[in-house]
Amino acid sequence: MVTTTDVRGDRQARSWDWVGSRLQQQGALLALVALLALGWARYGDDGFVSSYNLVSALRYNAMFALIALGMTFVLITGGIDLSVGGVAVLASVVAAELSPAGLWPGVTGAILVGVAVGLVNGGLVAGFGIQPFIVTLATLLAARGLALILAGNEAAPVDFESNFLQLDRIVGGVSLAVIIAAIAYVAGSILLNLTRFGRHLLALGGNEEAARLAGLPVARTLVAVYALSGGLAGLTGAILAAQTFTGNPNEAVGWELSAIAAVVVGGTLLTGGVGSVWTTLVGVLLLGLIINLLGFENLDPYWQNVIRGGFLLVVVVLQRRLTERRGSRRIA
Amino acid sequence: MIETANHDLLLRMEGVTKAFPGVVALADASLRVGRGEVHALVGQNGAGKSTLMKILNGAYRRDGGTVVLDGSPIDFRSPKQAQAGGISTIHQEINLVPYRSVAENVFMGREPRRFGMIDWPRMNRSAREILSRLNVGVDVTQPLLRLNVAVQQMVAIARAVSFQSKLVVMDEPTSSLDEREVATLFAVIRGLKADGVSVIFITHRLDELYEVCDRVTIMRDGRTVEERPMGEISKLELVATMLGKELGEVRRTGQTGFGESQRHGRGVLLEASALSRGRALRDASVRVDAGEIVGLAGLLGSGRTEVARAVFGADPVDAGEIRFRGESARFDGPGDAIRAGIGFCTEDRKAEGIIPHLSVRENLTLAALPVLARAGVVDRGRQREIVDRFMRRLGIRAAGPEQPIRELSGGNQQKVLLARWLCLNPKLLILDEPTRGIDVGAKAEIQSLIDELAGEGLGVLMISSELEELTEGGDRVVVLRDGRTVAELSREAATQDAIMAAMALGPAQPEAATDPAIA
Fold first, then answer.
1. How far is the alpha carbon of B352 from chain A, nearest alpha carbon, in Å?
2. Which of A184, B157, B299, B401 lies most in the core, judged by the most C-beta atoms within 10 Å?
3. According to Swiss-Prot or TrEMBL, what is its membrane topology (chain B) (predicted)?
4. What values do phi and psi take at B100, rounded to 5?
5. Domains in chain B, start-ordered, CATH in brackets?
């Protein structure tokens, strides 16, 4: 009898809660649809929504999508990975250096470099209990430095004779990078939703002590998640090298922050325990296409980051308000 | 007695009430503290001590009642106001800034200034003066973090004194101190007393009360139930009053869902002997047979939870032996203990049990994921099957397996956590306060479930603060006091009085022998 009164008293609050959580999960999707509609209304099929524009926008944003995917997993555990930008350029230099050997050595080398940095990140976070922010900030700097040393402070050219550039070929009308990203998102979604590892991530981010007492391999899971993020950043580096024909140590500045912005805009909580792969993809597209649309508006390009920043703030404030209301309801 | 004390009353709190949404934290609390008196405030968890203290120091506003300090009514709106009014609080965790110097910590926010800049010589001198009055000689210019916890505690007290406090509230100040440090703290308290400062002392360690306190106020369920001079109340009576039991109450009340059936042990399952870890555990031993419910009793801080965590491999131990199913079993972590067949339902459901955002299904199968996964992929079909089976068997009331666990009632959350272990088919289940904060119906359900499981051969180690639960549910009751096992009582011997006596007095002390209630 206690339960029935509980349910009745709660119904109103719960339906609001439901609206809130839908908004948090799907708000970015609504915004994305609105943005596409706006672009279509203003510029029609020939401009913004033209296949050429969208394909080239996707080609570029595939790289952000891959980095943001890894970042999603890290943020779900309540951590952060600032090293991904540095890892991507280090990997792009490595890929360029290995490109004479062909496509597979280049890509594999880039991914392995990323995984290696990720293992260092995860090992320091899980083994020594150092804050992820500090650890990955340090490896960000170190990876950029290594990229400069390796490339001798200039862009390392990709070997045009080899088949490395096949990484950016067009398949069925879109860049191979877009297809890789799409496959990665399907795999990522399976990983998060269907595997033990994915469920461990959510449990760990939701309540680390409870996860530990339930016998979950907390340390191993943390190491794996940073390695995964590093590996995806490495793959991104290989794609970057193929798209720019060089391994340029001065590229990819601030990518880690753009990726975090995209993940958070998608609705993944920075505090951990809640997150989804698909909303991250929506976040990446939303932020990417806003910039694209602004290009059509003849807006000064310097406004790009102002708009992105403003967007991020709005989303974070909304998230805060939503979680606050839930928190207060739980006490009552 | 109280009438005469009235002349010199510093603080009078009367009829104080405070309700939070859904809970009445204080129903009728009163507290009277004389000038220069060290006053003990005791009660079980949830008795309302902290709420009363938070009302006193302005962290909470009261709903009703009067508070009079030094003859004038007060109503502080913030701890800062209370401090200005002469009331300082020293918390269990020290609220100071570790990287700043001792002197800065003492005067933070009120640094003496000269020409607009901090007057360092004067600040250091004043800090040194105050600390030497407390008989603490430290270099006041060194950062706080270089000092041990006891001295940090003294710095907190020095800060309180520097506010010209009339009343200092100490909330479990000794919980992180060792014996020698406790002695130093007590010397400081006596010094404060000599200076006419009153102290409210909250602790769970009974011996300490008798060592420094003049009078005691006992709270239970949001009410003040007793106020006495320390010398006029025996430890046993004190514990009985805290728990709300009559001395000599021996009858079984029959309120719990535990059956009366006598289970017989089927071989030793767990044998932990002479466990020790820091100050928390000194010589704790406990044995559990298969098919047996062993109650683990003790006051807060007696080491009950620490024993459970040690057995489960969640905390390392300094010394002692743990044998599980005949084999030496010092587990490296919960994972090993779980694989060996042990489950552990923690005391604090919110902080250590549930993963709030996740569904009933996910929470229920959290520990079972290794078993449920094939090549890393969770077998959803089997997962659903297990969840359905245990939701039915335990009568878990939820909108469905996908409802987030945070939306369930406490009783249903607890059932999910029980199921988390039961679905692994454990040999030993450790339950830390399995029915705390759960409504009466769910409580009886959980108790009869535990009973049934033991009947099927599961060994259960049950920590509980409720004496009925221990006397009716336990086949044996092991009593801890200050980290030591002080008594092991058979089902027949485990009366509420006998448990209380062991909790309060320890084994075979003269006082116990002369107390008529125990004979």
1. 4
2. B157
3. Peripheral membrane protein
4. -95, 165
5. 2-233 (3.40.50.300), 267-341+426-519 (3.40.50.300), 351-425 (no CATH)
